[in-house]
UniProtKB/TrEMBL annotation:
Domain called ABC transporter: residue spans: 2-242, 338-528
Identification of the protein by name: ABC transporter related protein
SUPFAM superfamilies assigned: P-loop containing nucleoside triphosphate hydrolases
Keyword Nucleotide-binding: yes
A single MF term (Gene Ontology): ATP hydrolysis activity
Region (Disordered): 248-273
Family matches, as Gene3D superfamilies: P-loop containing nucleotide triphosphate hydrolases (3.40.50.300)
PANTHER family: ATP-BINDING TRANSPORT PROTEIN-RELATED, BLL7188 PROTEIN
Length: 528
Protein backbone atom coordinates (compact mmCIF):
# COMPACT_ATOMS: atom_id res chain seq x y z
CA UNK A 1 0.00 0.00 0.00
CA UNK A 2 1.09 3.56 -0.78
CA UNK A 3 -0.18 6.64 1.09
CA UNK A 4 0.64 10.24 0.09
CA UNK A 5 -0.39 13.01 2.50
CA UNK A 6 -0.16 16.74 1.65
CA UNK A 7 2.82 16.30 -0.70
CA UNK A 8 4.20 19.57 -2.12
CA UNK A 9 7.25 20.20 -4.29
CA UNK A 10 9.15 23.39 -5.05
CA UNK A 11 11.85 23.71 -7.70
CA UNK A 12 15.27 24.97 -6.60
CA UNK A 13 14.23 28.40 -7.96
CA UNK A 14 11.32 28.28 -5.40
CA UNK A 15 8.64 27.87 -8.10
CA UNK A 16 5.84 25.70 -6.69
CA UNK A 17 5.21 22.69 -8.94
CA UNK A 18 2.32 21.13 -7.02
CA UNK A 19 0.79 21.51 -3.57
CA UNK A 20 -1.02 19.28 -1.04
CA UNK A 21 -1.16 16.16 -3.22
CA UNK A 22 -2.75 13.23 -1.42
CA UNK A 23 -4.01 9.77 -2.41
CA UNK A 24 -3.84 6.09 -1.47
CA UNK A 25 -2.90 3.15 -3.75
CA UNK A 26 -4.03 -0.27 -2.54
CA UNK A 27 -2.49 -3.65 -3.37
CA UNK A 28 -2.90 -4.75 -7.03
CA UNK A 29 -4.39 -1.40 -8.10
CA UNK A 30 -3.37 -0.22 -11.58
CA UNK A 31 -3.28 3.56 -11.89
CA UNK A 32 -2.76 5.85 -14.89
CA UNK A 33 -1.16 9.17 -13.92
CA UNK A 34 -1.85 11.71 -16.66
CA UNK A 35 -1.63 15.48 -17.11
CA UNK A 36 -0.13 18.12 -19.36
CA UNK A 37 3.63 18.44 -19.87
CA UNK A 38 5.22 20.32 -17.01
CA UNK A 39 2.62 19.64 -14.27
CA UNK A 40 5.03 17.35 -12.39
CA UNK A 41 4.08 13.73 -13.24
CA UNK A 42 7.70 12.53 -13.48
CA UNK A 43 8.63 14.52 -10.36
CA UNK A 44 5.80 12.86 -8.41
CA UNK A 45 7.03 9.40 -9.51
CA UNK A 46 10.57 10.29 -8.38
CA UNK A 47 9.23 11.38 -4.97
CA UNK A 48 7.37 8.05 -4.59
CA UNK A 49 10.59 6.24 -5.67
CA UNK A 50 12.57 8.28 -3.04
CA UNK A 51 14.77 9.77 -5.77
CA UNK A 52 13.52 13.23 -4.78
CA UNK A 53 12.41 14.59 -1.43
CA UNK A 54 9.12 16.53 -1.24
CA UNK A 55 9.19 20.10 0.05
CA UNK A 56 6.35 19.22 2.44
CA UNK A 57 4.14 16.27 3.29
CA UNK A 58 4.51 12.62 4.20
CA UNK A 59 4.84 9.43 2.16
CA UNK A 60 4.19 5.91 3.47
CA UNK A 61 4.95 2.80 1.41
CA UNK A 62 4.96 -0.85 2.55
CA UNK A 63 7.87 -1.96 0.36
CA UNK A 64 10.50 -0.45 -1.92
CA UNK A 65 8.95 0.53 -5.30
CA UNK A 66 10.54 -0.61 -8.57
CA UNK A 67 11.00 2.54 -10.69
CA UNK A 68 11.64 2.69 -14.43
CA UNK A 69 12.47 6.28 -15.52
CA UNK A 70 11.86 7.80 -18.93
CA UNK A 71 15.57 8.45 -19.60
CA UNK A 72 18.35 5.88 -19.07
CA UNK A 73 21.55 7.86 -19.82
CA UNK A 74 22.57 7.81 -16.14
CA UNK A 75 23.02 4.01 -16.38
CA UNK A 76 25.21 3.98 -19.52
CA UNK A 77 28.45 3.31 -17.61
CA UNK A 78 26.96 0.22 -15.91
CA UNK A 79 26.58 -3.35 -17.12
CA UNK A 80 23.08 -4.82 -17.50
CA UNK A 81 23.61 -6.82 -14.29
CA UNK A 82 24.75 -3.72 -12.37
CA UNK A 83 21.87 -1.59 -13.67
CA UNK A 84 19.39 -4.30 -12.64
CA UNK A 85 21.08 -4.58 -9.20
CA UNK A 86 21.62 -8.33 -9.53
CA UNK A 87 25.39 -8.36 -10.07
CA UNK A 88 26.39 -8.94 -6.44
CA UNK A 89 23.92 -11.81 -6.01
CA UNK A 90 25.02 -13.45 -9.28
CA UNK A 91 28.69 -13.18 -8.28
CA UNK A 92 27.90 -14.64 -4.85
CA UNK A 93 25.92 -17.52 -6.43
CA UNK A 94 28.76 -18.27 -8.87
CA UNK A 95 31.30 -18.27 -6.02
CA UNK A 96 29.15 -20.60 -3.87
CA UNK A 97 28.63 -23.04 -6.77
CA UNK A 98 32.41 -23.04 -7.28
CA UNK A 99 32.86 -24.09 -3.64
CA UNK A 100 33.53 -20.71 -2.03
CA UNK A 101 30.75 -21.07 0.58
CA UNK A 102 31.57 -18.10 2.83
CA UNK A 103 29.31 -16.29 5.30
CA UNK A 104 29.67 -13.13 3.19
CA UNK A 105 28.53 -14.86 -0.05
CA UNK A 106 25.59 -16.53 1.70
CA UNK A 107 24.53 -13.18 3.21
CA UNK A 108 24.71 -11.42 -0.19
CA UNK A 109 22.75 -14.21 -1.92
CA UNK A 110 20.16 -14.20 0.91
CA UNK A 111 18.73 -17.60 -0.12
CA UNK A 112 17.85 -16.26 -3.59
CA UNK A 113 18.92 -19.47 -5.36
CA UNK A 114 16.75 -18.81 -8.45
CA UNK A 115 18.19 -15.36 -9.22
CA UNK A 116 20.15 -16.48 -12.33
CA UNK A 117 17.23 -18.48 -13.70
CA UNK A 118 14.85 -15.51 -13.19
CA UNK A 119 17.28 -13.18 -14.98
CA UNK A 120 17.47 -15.30 -18.12
CA UNK A 121 13.74 -16.13 -18.10
CA UNK A 122 12.92 -12.41 -17.83
CA UNK A 123 15.36 -11.42 -20.61
CA UNK A 124 13.93 -14.17 -22.81
CA UNK A 125 10.34 -12.91 -22.26
CA UNK A 126 11.40 -9.44 -23.42
CA UNK A 127 13.19 -10.92 -26.48
CA UNK A 128 16.65 -10.11 -25.11
CA UNK A 129 18.11 -13.64 -25.06
CA UNK A 130 21.06 -12.48 -27.16
CA UNK A 131 22.19 -10.02 -24.47
CA UNK A 132 24.78 -10.82 -21.83
CA UNK A 133 24.43 -9.46 -18.26
CA UNK A 134 28.01 -8.17 -18.49
CA UNK A 135 27.16 -6.00 -21.54
CA UNK A 136 27.28 -2.23 -21.00
CA UNK A 137 23.97 -0.33 -21.08
CA UNK A 138 25.52 2.26 -23.45
CA UNK A 139 25.76 -0.39 -26.19
CA UNK A 140 21.95 -0.89 -26.26
CA UNK A 141 19.31 0.85 -28.34
CA UNK A 142 16.56 2.90 -26.68
CA UNK A 143 14.10 0.03 -27.03
CA UNK A 144 16.55 -2.51 -25.60
CA UNK A 145 17.27 -0.29 -22.58
CA UNK A 146 13.55 -0.03 -21.83
CA UNK A 147 13.10 -3.81 -22.16
CA UNK A 148 16.08 -4.50 -19.86
CA UNK A 149 14.50 -2.47 -17.07
CA UNK A 150 11.08 -4.02 -17.75
CA UNK A 151 12.76 -7.42 -17.34
CA UNK A 152 13.84 -6.27 -13.89
CA UNK A 153 10.20 -6.36 -12.74
CA UNK A 154 10.02 -10.15 -13.15
CA UNK A 155 13.45 -10.53 -11.56
CA UNK A 156 12.71 -8.50 -8.40
CA UNK A 157 8.94 -9.22 -8.18
CA UNK A 158 8.11 -5.88 -6.47
CA UNK A 159 4.71 -5.08 -4.93
CA UNK A 160 4.68 -1.57 -6.45
CA UNK A 161 5.96 -0.64 -9.92
CA UNK A 162 6.39 2.95 -11.18
CA UNK A 163 6.65 3.32 -14.97
CA UNK A 164 7.42 6.62 -16.72
CA UNK A 165 6.44 6.45 -20.43
CA UNK A 166 7.34 2.75 -20.73
CA UNK A 167 6.15 2.32 -24.34
CA UNK A 168 8.48 5.02 -25.68
CA UNK A 169 11.07 3.49 -28.05
CA UNK A 170 9.29 0.12 -28.07
CA UNK A 171 8.36 -1.43 -31.42
CA UNK A 172 4.97 -3.07 -32.02
CA UNK A 173 6.03 -6.53 -30.81
CA UNK A 174 7.55 -5.16 -27.59
CA UNK A 175 4.46 -3.02 -26.93
CA UNK A 176 2.28 -6.12 -27.15
CA UNK A 177 4.53 -7.82 -24.57
CA UNK A 178 4.16 -4.74 -22.34
CA UNK A 179 0.37 -4.76 -22.68
CA UNK A 180 0.24 -8.47 -21.80
CA UNK A 181 2.45 -7.89 -18.77
CA UNK A 182 0.26 -5.00 -17.51
CA UNK A 183 -2.86 -7.08 -17.98
CA UNK A 184 -1.51 -10.11 -16.10
CA UNK A 185 0.71 -8.72 -13.32
CA UNK A 186 -0.37 -8.78 -9.66
CA UNK A 187 1.89 -5.84 -8.79
CA UNK A 188 0.39 -2.42 -8.06
CA UNK A 189 1.14 -0.07 -10.95
CA UNK A 190 1.43 3.69 -11.34
CA UNK A 191 2.06 4.49 -14.99
CA UNK A 192 2.74 7.83 -16.65
CA UNK A 193 1.98 7.42 -20.35
CA UNK A 194 0.44 9.04 -23.43
CA UNK A 195 -0.14 5.60 -25.03
CA UNK A 196 -3.93 5.41 -25.04
CA UNK A 197 -4.01 1.66 -25.75
CA UNK A 198 -1.91 1.13 -22.63
CA UNK A 199 -4.01 3.59 -20.59
CA UNK A 200 -7.16 1.64 -21.43
CA UNK A 201 -5.68 -1.40 -19.66
CA UNK A 202 -5.64 0.48 -16.33
CA UNK A 203 -8.68 0.69 -14.11
CA UNK A 204 -8.31 4.19 -12.60
CA UNK A 205 -7.07 7.52 -13.99
CA UNK A 206 -5.42 10.11 -11.74
CA UNK A 207 -5.20 13.49 -13.48
CA UNK A 208 -2.52 15.84 -12.13
CA UNK A 209 -3.10 19.55 -12.79
CA UNK A 210 -2.47 22.91 -11.13
CA UNK A 211 -5.62 22.27 -9.09
CA UNK A 212 -4.21 19.00 -7.67
CA UNK A 213 -5.25 15.37 -8.28
CA UNK A 214 -8.63 14.47 -9.80
CA UNK A 215 -9.60 10.78 -9.72
CA UNK A 216 -11.69 9.07 -12.41
CA UNK A 217 -12.84 5.51 -11.63
CA UNK A 218 -12.35 3.92 -15.03
CA UNK A 219 -9.91 3.50 -17.91
CA UNK A 220 -8.79 6.24 -20.31
CA UNK A 221 -11.88 6.01 -22.54
CA UNK A 222 -14.07 6.52 -19.46
CA UNK A 223 -11.90 9.47 -18.42
CA UNK A 224 -12.17 11.01 -21.92
CA UNK A 225 -15.97 10.69 -21.84
CA UNK A 226 -16.13 12.38 -18.41
CA UNK A 227 -13.81 15.17 -19.59
CA UNK A 228 -16.06 15.74 -22.60
CA UNK A 229 -19.07 16.02 -20.28
CA UNK A 230 -17.12 18.47 -18.09
CA UNK A 231 -16.05 20.45 -21.16
CA UNK A 232 -19.65 20.64 -22.44
CA UNK A 233 -20.85 21.84 -19.02
CA UNK A 234 -17.99 24.34 -18.88
CA UNK A 235 -18.87 25.70 -22.34
CA UNK A 236 -22.52 26.00 -21.30
CA UNK A 237 -21.47 27.92 -18.17
CA UNK A 238 -19.22 30.04 -20.35
CA UNK A 239 -22.01 30.92 -22.81
CA UNK A 240 -24.37 31.61 -19.89
CA UNK A 241 -21.87 34.00 -18.26
CA UNK A 242 -21.14 35.71 -21.60
CA UNK A 243 -24.89 36.21 -22.07
CA UNK A 244 -25.23 37.52 -18.50
CA UNK A 245 -22.33 39.93 -19.11
CA UNK A 246 -23.94 41.25 -22.30
CA UNK A 247 -27.28 41.75 -20.50
CA UNK A 248 -25.57 43.47 -17.56
CA UNK A 249 -23.80 45.89 -19.91
CA UNK A 250 -27.02 46.55 -21.81
CA UNK A 251 -28.84 47.14 -18.49
CA UNK A 252 -26.08 49.51 -17.39
CA UNK A 253 -26.30 51.47 -20.64
CA UNK A 254 -30.12 51.63 -20.55
CA UNK A 255 -30.18 52.70 -16.88
CA UNK A 256 -27.59 55.43 -17.41
CA UNK A 257 -29.35 56.69 -20.55
CA UNK A 258 -32.71 56.76 -18.69
CA UNK A 259 -31.15 58.60 -15.73
CA UNK A 260 -29.48 61.12 -18.07
CA UNK A 261 -32.83 61.79 -19.79
CA UNK A 262 -34.54 62.27 -16.39
CA UNK A 263 -31.76 64.58 -15.24
CA UNK A 264 -31.95 66.62 -18.47
CA UNK A 265 -35.74 66.85 -18.23
CA UNK A 266 -35.53 67.95 -14.57
CA UNK A 267 -32.92 70.57 -15.41
CA UNK A 268 -35.13 72.11 -18.11
CA UNK A 269 -38.08 72.28 -15.68
CA UNK A 270 -35.91 73.93 -13.08
CA UNK A 271 -34.61 76.51 -15.57
CA UNK A 272 -38.16 77.35 -16.70
CA UNK A 273 -39.45 77.71 -13.13
CA UNK A 274 -36.58 80.11 -12.30
CA UNK A 275 -34.89 78.09 -9.54
CA UNK A 276 -31.99 79.96 -7.91
CA UNK A 277 -28.44 79.19 -9.17
CA UNK A 278 -27.27 77.83 -5.79
CA UNK A 279 -30.26 75.49 -5.67
CA UNK A 280 -29.57 74.47 -9.30
CA UNK A 281 -26.02 73.45 -8.31
CA UNK A 282 -27.31 71.40 -5.39
CA UNK A 283 -29.82 69.59 -7.59
CA UNK A 284 -27.15 68.96 -10.26
CA UNK A 285 -24.79 67.50 -7.64
CA UNK A 286 -27.56 65.27 -6.34
CA UNK A 287 -28.28 64.04 -9.89
CA UNK A 288 -24.59 63.35 -10.51
CA UNK A 289 -24.31 61.45 -7.22
CA UNK A 290 -27.39 59.41 -8.11
CA UNK A 291 -25.95 58.55 -11.55
CA UNK A 292 -22.59 57.70 -9.98
CA UNK A 293 -24.22 55.32 -7.48
CA UNK A 294 -26.20 53.63 -10.26
CA UNK A 295 -23.04 53.26 -12.36
CA UNK A 296 -21.12 51.88 -9.35
CA UNK A 297 -23.79 49.22 -8.77
CA UNK A 298 -23.62 48.11 -12.40
CA UNK A 299 -19.80 48.24 -12.54
CA UNK A 300 -19.62 46.01 -9.46
CA UNK A 301 -22.03 43.52 -11.03
CA UNK A 302 -20.17 43.57 -14.38
CA UNK A 303 -16.81 43.12 -12.63
CA UNK A 304 -18.18 40.13 -10.72
CA UNK A 305 -19.47 38.45 -13.87
CA UNK A 306 -16.22 39.28 -15.74
CA UNK A 307 -14.16 37.67 -12.97
CA UNK A 308 -16.29 34.50 -13.11
CA UNK A 309 -15.91 34.51 -16.89
CA UNK A 310 -12.10 34.76 -16.65
CA UNK A 311 -12.03 31.85 -14.19
CA UNK A 312 -14.17 29.72 -16.51
CA UNK A 313 -11.99 30.56 -19.53
CA UNK A 314 -8.82 29.69 -17.60
CA UNK A 315 -10.32 26.25 -16.91
CA UNK A 316 -10.77 25.56 -20.64
CA UNK A 317 -8.12 23.32 -22.24
CA UNK A 318 -5.67 25.02 -24.60
CA UNK A 319 -7.39 25.54 -27.91
CA UNK A 320 -6.22 23.44 -30.84
CA UNK A 321 -6.50 26.25 -33.37
CA UNK A 322 -2.87 25.68 -34.27
CA UNK A 323 -3.09 25.06 -37.96
CA UNK A 324 -0.37 25.09 -40.59
CA UNK A 325 -2.32 27.50 -42.80
CA UNK A 326 -0.23 26.46 -45.82
CA UNK A 327 -0.92 27.61 -49.36
CA UNK A 328 -1.60 24.20 -50.94
CA UNK A 329 -1.94 25.50 -54.50
CA UNK A 330 1.53 24.23 -55.46
CA UNK A 331 0.76 20.64 -54.54
CA UNK A 332 -0.11 18.29 -57.42
CA UNK A 333 -2.16 15.38 -56.11
CA UNK A 334 -1.34 12.09 -57.84
CA UNK A 335 2.19 13.09 -58.89
CA UNK A 336 4.92 10.42 -58.38
CA UNK A 337 7.34 11.93 -55.84
CA UNK A 338 9.54 8.88 -55.21
CA UNK A 339 9.95 5.46 -56.81
CA UNK A 340 12.32 2.67 -55.78
CA UNK A 341 12.91 -0.50 -57.81
CA UNK A 342 14.57 -3.49 -56.10
CA UNK A 343 16.61 -1.34 -53.70
CA UNK A 344 18.64 -2.61 -50.75
CA UNK A 345 21.25 -1.27 -48.39
CA UNK A 346 24.12 -2.95 -46.59
CA UNK A 347 26.10 -2.37 -43.42
CA UNK A 348 29.46 -4.14 -43.31
CA UNK A 349 28.53 -6.14 -46.40
CA UNK A 350 25.34 -7.45 -44.73
CA UNK A 351 22.09 -6.67 -46.55
CA UNK A 352 19.63 -4.68 -44.43
CA UNK A 353 16.44 -6.07 -45.97
CA UNK A 354 15.83 -9.75 -46.66
CA UNK A 355 13.87 -8.81 -49.79
CA UNK A 356 14.66 -5.91 -52.08
CA UNK A 357 12.20 -3.03 -51.70
CA UNK A 358 9.83 -1.77 -54.38
CA UNK A 359 8.17 1.47 -53.27
CA UNK A 360 6.12 4.21 -54.92
CA UNK A 361 5.11 7.40 -53.12
CA UNK A 362 2.34 9.48 -54.68
CA UNK A 363 1.63 13.12 -53.80
CA UNK A 364 -1.14 13.39 -51.21
CA UNK A 365 -0.66 9.89 -49.72
CA UNK A 366 -0.62 9.35 -45.95
CA UNK A 367 1.85 6.53 -45.24
CA UNK A 368 3.11 4.76 -42.12
CA UNK A 369 6.50 3.03 -42.08
CA UNK A 370 6.31 -0.03 -39.84
CA UNK A 371 8.93 -2.46 -38.67
CA UNK A 372 10.68 -3.68 -35.53
CA UNK A 373 13.62 -1.79 -34.06
CA UNK A 374 16.58 -2.18 -36.44
CA UNK A 375 14.45 -3.00 -39.50
CA UNK A 376 15.83 -0.03 -41.47
CA UNK A 377 13.08 2.62 -41.17
CA UNK A 378 15.56 5.47 -40.60
CA UNK A 379 17.74 4.23 -43.48
CA UNK A 380 14.76 4.24 -45.85
CA UNK A 381 13.86 7.77 -44.76
CA UNK A 382 17.41 8.92 -45.56
CA UNK A 383 17.15 7.32 -49.02
CA UNK A 384 13.80 9.09 -49.63
CA UNK A 385 15.42 12.37 -48.53
CA UNK A 386 18.40 11.65 -50.85
CA UNK A 387 20.84 11.68 -47.94
CA UNK A 388 21.80 8.07 -48.64
CA UNK A 389 22.07 6.08 -51.87
CA UNK A 390 20.98 2.42 -51.98
CA UNK A 391 23.70 -0.17 -52.56
CA UNK A 392 21.58 -1.83 -55.23
CA UNK A 393 18.50 -1.05 -57.31
CA UNK A 394 17.34 2.24 -58.83
CA UNK A 395 15.65 5.29 -57.36
CA UNK A 396 13.62 8.09 -58.98
CA UNK A 397 12.98 11.22 -56.94
CA UNK A 398 10.99 14.17 -58.30
CA UNK A 399 12.17 17.64 -57.30
CA UNK A 400 10.38 18.33 -54.05
CA UNK A 401 10.46 20.28 -50.82
CA UNK A 402 10.67 17.92 -47.84
CA UNK A 403 10.62 18.51 -44.10
CA UNK A 404 11.95 15.84 -41.73
CA UNK A 405 10.86 16.16 -38.10
CA UNK A 406 12.57 13.67 -35.80
CA UNK A 407 11.52 12.84 -32.25
CA UNK A 408 14.15 15.23 -30.81
CA UNK A 409 12.97 18.15 -33.04
CA UNK A 410 16.54 18.66 -34.29
CA UNK A 411 15.39 21.47 -36.60
CA UNK A 412 15.09 23.53 -33.41
CA UNK A 413 18.39 25.19 -32.47
CA UNK A 414 18.69 24.89 -28.68
CA UNK A 415 21.13 27.81 -28.54
CA UNK A 416 18.55 30.26 -29.93
CA UNK A 417 15.76 32.05 -28.08
CA UNK A 418 12.18 31.25 -29.08
CA UNK A 419 11.61 34.45 -31.09
CA UNK A 420 15.02 34.15 -32.83
CA UNK A 421 14.23 30.52 -33.75
CA UNK A 422 10.95 31.61 -35.34
CA UNK A 423 12.80 34.36 -37.22
CA UNK A 424 15.17 31.72 -38.71
CA UNK A 425 12.19 30.33 -40.66
CA UNK A 426 11.00 33.75 -41.84
CA UNK A 427 11.65 33.22 -45.54
CA UNK A 428 8.65 35.31 -46.63
CA UNK A 429 9.70 38.53 -44.89
CA UNK A 430 7.02 38.71 -42.20
CA UNK A 431 7.09 41.78 -39.95
CA UNK A 432 8.04 41.37 -36.28
CA UNK A 433 4.46 41.80 -35.05
CA UNK A 434 3.27 39.12 -37.52
CA UNK A 435 5.82 36.59 -36.19
CA UNK A 436 4.74 37.37 -32.62
CA UNK A 437 1.10 36.89 -33.62
CA UNK A 438 2.00 33.41 -34.98
CA UNK A 439 3.91 32.59 -31.77
CA UNK A 440 0.88 33.67 -29.71
CA UNK A 441 -1.37 31.41 -31.78
CA UNK A 442 0.85 28.46 -30.82
CA UNK A 443 0.70 29.44 -27.11
CA UNK A 444 4.09 31.18 -27.04
CA UNK A 445 3.11 34.40 -25.31
CA UNK A 446 5.36 37.35 -24.45
CA UNK A 447 7.08 35.60 -21.52
CA UNK A 448 8.34 32.87 -23.92
CA UNK A 449 9.89 35.07 -26.60
CA UNK A 450 13.27 35.47 -24.82
CA UNK A 451 13.29 31.95 -23.40
CA UNK A 452 16.07 29.65 -24.73
CA UNK A 453 14.83 26.74 -26.84
CA UNK A 454 16.92 24.40 -24.67
CA UNK A 455 14.52 25.10 -21.78
CA UNK A 456 11.43 23.97 -23.73
CA UNK A 457 9.67 20.66 -23.05
CA UNK A 458 9.09 18.09 -25.81
CA UNK A 459 5.54 19.34 -26.32
CA UNK A 460 6.67 22.98 -26.48
CA UNK A 461 9.36 22.13 -29.05
CA UNK A 462 6.75 20.34 -31.14
CA UNK A 463 4.46 23.41 -31.05
CA UNK A 464 7.39 25.71 -31.91
CA UNK A 465 8.28 23.42 -34.83
CA UNK A 466 4.71 23.64 -36.15
CA UNK A 467 4.77 27.41 -35.69
CA UNK A 468 8.07 27.71 -37.59
CA UNK A 469 6.60 25.73 -40.50
CA UNK A 470 3.68 28.19 -40.72
CA UNK A 471 6.15 31.10 -40.74
CA UNK A 472 8.09 29.38 -43.53
CA UNK A 473 4.74 29.53 -45.35
CA UNK A 474 5.33 27.46 -48.49
CA UNK A 475 3.65 24.06 -48.23
CA UNK A 476 6.24 21.24 -48.32
CA UNK A 477 5.56 18.37 -50.74
CA UNK A 478 6.48 15.82 -48.04
CA UNK A 479 6.45 15.95 -44.26
CA UNK A 480 8.21 13.04 -42.55
CA UNK A 481 7.54 12.48 -38.84
CA UNK A 482 9.79 10.07 -36.92
CA UNK A 483 8.08 8.83 -33.73
CA UNK A 484 6.42 12.25 -33.29
CA UNK A 485 4.37 11.34 -30.20
CA UNK A 486 7.31 10.24 -28.04
CA UNK A 487 7.61 12.61 -25.05
CA UNK A 488 4.32 14.39 -25.86
CA UNK A 489 1.39 14.53 -23.47
CA UNK A 490 -2.08 13.65 -24.75
CA UNK A 491 -3.08 17.29 -25.20
CA UNK A 492 -0.06 18.00 -27.41
CA UNK A 493 -0.71 14.81 -29.40
CA UNK A 494 -4.21 16.16 -30.11
CA UNK A 495 -2.72 19.51 -31.18
CA UNK A 496 -0.28 17.71 -33.50
CA UNK A 497 -3.08 15.53 -34.95
CA UNK A 498 -5.26 18.58 -35.66
CA UNK A 499 -2.40 20.37 -37.45
CA UNK A 500 -1.43 17.28 -39.50
CA UNK A 501 -5.04 16.64 -40.57
CA UNK A 502 -5.17 20.12 -42.06
CA UNK A 503 -2.02 19.44 -44.16
CA UNK A 504 -2.82 18.38 -47.76
CA UNK A 505 0.62 17.20 -48.89
CA UNK A 506 2.32 13.80 -48.59
CA UNK A 507 2.75 12.49 -45.07
CA UNK A 508 5.19 9.74 -44.04
CA UNK A 509 5.09 8.69 -40.40
CA UNK A 510 7.17 6.30 -38.31
CA UNK A 511 5.07 5.47 -35.25
CA UNK A 512 3.94 2.58 -33.09
CA UNK A 513 1.09 4.64 -31.59
CA UNK A 514 -1.98 3.01 -33.15
CA UNK A 515 -4.41 5.61 -31.74
CA UNK A 516 -2.37 8.44 -33.27
CA UNK A 517 -2.20 6.68 -36.65
CA UNK A 518 -5.99 6.32 -36.68
CA UNK A 519 -6.45 10.00 -35.81
CA UNK A 520 -4.29 11.23 -38.72
CA UNK A 521 -6.07 8.97 -41.24
CA UNK A 522 -3.16 6.82 -42.40
CA UNK A 523 -4.18 5.03 -45.61
CA UNK A 524 -1.06 3.09 -46.67
CA UNK A 525 1.48 0.92 -44.84
CA UNK A 526 5.07 0.17 -45.86
CA UNK A 527 6.12 -2.84 -43.77
CA UNK A 528 9.85 -3.46 -43.32
Amino acid sequence: MLILQNISYKHSNTDLLFDNIGFTINNQEKIALIGNNGVGKSTLLKIIASELQPSNGELKVNSEPYYIPQIFGQYNHLTIGEALRVNDKLNALTAILEGNVTEENLTVLNDDWTIEERCYTALKYWQLSDLDLTQKIETLSGGQKTKVFLAGISIHEPELVLLDEPSNHLDHAARELLYNFIDSTNSSLIIVSHDRKLLNLLNTVYELSKRGISIYGGNYNFYAEQKEIEKTALNQDLHSKEKALRKAREKERETIERQQKLDARGKKKQEKSGVARIMMNTLRNNAENSSSKLKSVHVEKIDGISKELRELRSALPDVDQMKFGFDNSGLHKGKILFKANAINYSYKERLLWKKDLNIEIISGERIVLKGNNGSGKTTLIKIILEKLEPKSGTVYSAQNKSVYIDQDYSLINNELKVYDQAQQFNSSGLEEHEIKMRLNRFLFHREYWDKPCSALSGGEKMRLMLCCLTINNGSPDIIILDEPTNNLDIQNIEILSAAINEYKGTLIVVSHDESFLEEINIEKTIQL
